[in-house]
Amino acid sequence: MKVLKNEKHQGYSPVLSQISDNQIHGDYKESFFIGIEGSNDTPFCRANIWPNPDVLSGWQATMEKYHQEALRVCKAIARVLALALNVDGDYFDTPEMLGNPLTFMRLLHYEGMSDPSKGIYGCGPHSDFGMMTLLGTDSVMGLQICKDRDVKPRKWEYILSIKGAYIVNIGDLLERWSNGIFKSTLHRVLGNGQDRYSIAFFLQPSHDCIVECLPTCQSENNPPKYPAIKCSTYLTQRYQDSQVDLSIYKK
């Protein structure tokens, strides 16, 4: 609780402090959120909150190294995605896109038993806000995806954890860029009574980036499905919708 999250969402979030789309109950997970180091010049830049090094010796350096390597992997994946969308492989490497990206990392611990019929989840149904998420997990089952969110009732299927492999989620902003060619992954986590741990690394473009349909993803018969939007505007609204007021913990 000494590193309870700040107004930029960096730091520790207790169990039930985050809500997913259209949920009544908070998620049965706790997390530690690490953002980008920086000034207060942008909505998402703030000095990170770190545990006392006397308590966790070397932990900050390990997290910072992991952050660098995860970003390198995401940028490599972005080049493959660019080619798939019929633009140059380095299309997303411009300063206004991934040249100065917003990158966040969330260390997650899930607990308890989920009951979707009562709205109780490890993490409720939601899509990720940004371009993509790189997810490292342990071997405990729990992550489910829904391939078609518009079909009722929704069909959920478990995603197996493969040792030595990452899970990559498509985010909302990539769906907007691709005009729906790449669908943002609706997913949730169900607790089964076991402790479950994962590390989610979120990649977003620069906060000033205007996200709009790529020229190669639209035509006369397939106009843009989403209006252009500034990255920081979209992220700010989604974060505000997903957080519980933690002032009660500070009293």
UniProtKB/TrEMBL annotation:
Xref: InterPro entries: IPNS-like_FE2OG_OXY, IPNS-like_sf, Oxoglu/Fe-dep_dioxygenase_dom
Lineage: superkingdom: Eukaryota
Stretches that traverse the bilayer: none
Keywords attached to this entry: Iron, Metal-binding, Oxidoreductase
Domain Fe2OG dioxygenase span(s) in chain numbering: 101-205
GO molecular function: dioxygenase activity; metal ion binding
Similarity comment: family membership: Belongs to the iron/ascorbate-dependent oxidoreductase family.
Annotated protein name in UniProt: 2-oxoglutarate (2OG) and Fe(II)-dependent oxygenase superfamily protein
Provenance organism: Arabidopsis thaliana
